[in-house]
Amino acid sequence: MTELFFRQQGSGKPLVLLHGNGEDSSYFSQQIAWFSRAWRVIAIDTRGHGRSPRGDAPFTLAQFAEDLHAFLEREGLRRIQLLGFSDGANVALLFSLRYPQYVEKLVLNGANLSPGGVRLRT
Question: Per the residue annotation, which of 29, 36, 86, 114 is the catalytic one?
Answer without folding.
Answer: 86
